[in-house]
């Protein structure tokens, strides 16, 4: 069982990344800046997250679900977690920590989930 590792999409609020790491320093959460995701297409972002065995965390409810569906038809994804933009930073942090504590990376393979549902 492997620990979940996260990859922030370029649209994810940095305060969520920073706050999550501050609350749980052992959690592995790579920023979009570090992964050089700015300006990349959804399919490229999904590929980068998959290559690095990271669950992609995004606010993109508009295009990411369809891109994810297309992606997993031919490739394996480490998973996608869509956080509502209406979710407070503290609630987003709590949700990510819960996912990290209560699930394994294997459970996220080719899965997509939205919070709130």
From TrEMBL:
Domain (DUF5615): residue spans on this chain: 5-113
Cross-referenced Pfam families: DUF5615
Protein name: DUF5615 domain-containing protein
């Amino acid at each position: 069982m492997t620990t979940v590792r996260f990859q922030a999409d370029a649209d994810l609020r940095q305060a969520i990344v920073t706050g999550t790491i501050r609350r749980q320093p052992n959690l592995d959460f790579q920023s979009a800046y570090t992964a050089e995701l700015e300006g990349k297409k959804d399919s490229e972002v999904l590929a980068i997250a998959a290559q690095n065995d990271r669950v992609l965390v995004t606010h993109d409810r508009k295009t990411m679900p369809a891109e994810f569906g297309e992606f997993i038809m031919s490739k394996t994804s480490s998973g996608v977690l869509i956080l509502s933009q209406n979710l407070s930073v503290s609630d987003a942090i709590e949700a990510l920590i819960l996912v990290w504590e209560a699930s394994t990376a294997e459970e996220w393979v080719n899965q997509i989930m939205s919070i709130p549902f």
